[in-house]
């Protein structure tokens, strides 16, 4: 199974199954979630490949492609700290170009650990994926989904509670 197939399986079998993102199921089941594997030799190549995916997402209609998961298998972004640096640089580039008005990021990593949270705390599982992943989300779609969802601000706390329920006190 390819890295993209494994990542899409994780979305279905973990994210959707545990309702971690209440907005994921509809576009996923409608086939509007894309996944692209980036096998870059260095961070610069990975950066430009991810930027190309922003352009590719924006060239498609939301009815065809709602969101894209950019998957980075291999060792390039295997370090969580390196991955976070990559994500922050990518967010800065989107901001500098104005693309942040159209696209926002979510990010996931096999070793994801929220700041101030111990590594084996179940809450970290909300952002743990089989591979480093940068999700490109259309800001308009996110805004519409959040506006139509009761208590969207409570989603993170509900997710933490759910992970505690499912996984108990540790990994």
Report what the structure shows.
The protein is α+β, with helices and mostly antiparallel strands and 171 residues long. The chain has one domain (3-167). It is built from six helices and four strands, in the order H-H-E-H-E-H-E-E-H-H. The protein has helices at residues 3-16, 25-29, 43-59, 80-97, 139-147, 155-167; strands at residues 33-37, 67-71, 103-108, 133-138. The protein has a four-stranded mixed beta sheet, with helices on both faces. Strand 1, helix 3 (43-59) and strand 2 (67-71) form a beta-alpha-beta unit. The protein starts with a helix and ends with a helix. The mean pLDDT is 94.
Describe the SSE topology:
Elements: H1 3-16, H2 25-29, E1 33-37, H3 43-59, E2 67-71, H4 80-97, E3 103-108, E4 133-138, H5 139-147, H6 155-167
Count of extended strands: 4
Biggest pleated sheet: 4 strands, mixed
> What is the H/E order?
HHEHEHEEHH
Contiguous low-pLDDT stretches (5 residues minimum) are none
Query: Gyration radius, to the nearest Å?
Result: 16 Å
> What is the number of independent domains?
1
* Average of pLDDT: 94
Q: What percent of the residues sit in helical stretches (DSSP H or I)?
A: 40-55%
Distance between the termini: 25 Å
Structural class: alpha+beta
Total helices: the number is: 6
Strand percentage: 5-15%
- Please list the strands of the largest sheet in the order they lie side by side: 1-2-4-3
- Anisotropy-based shape: globular
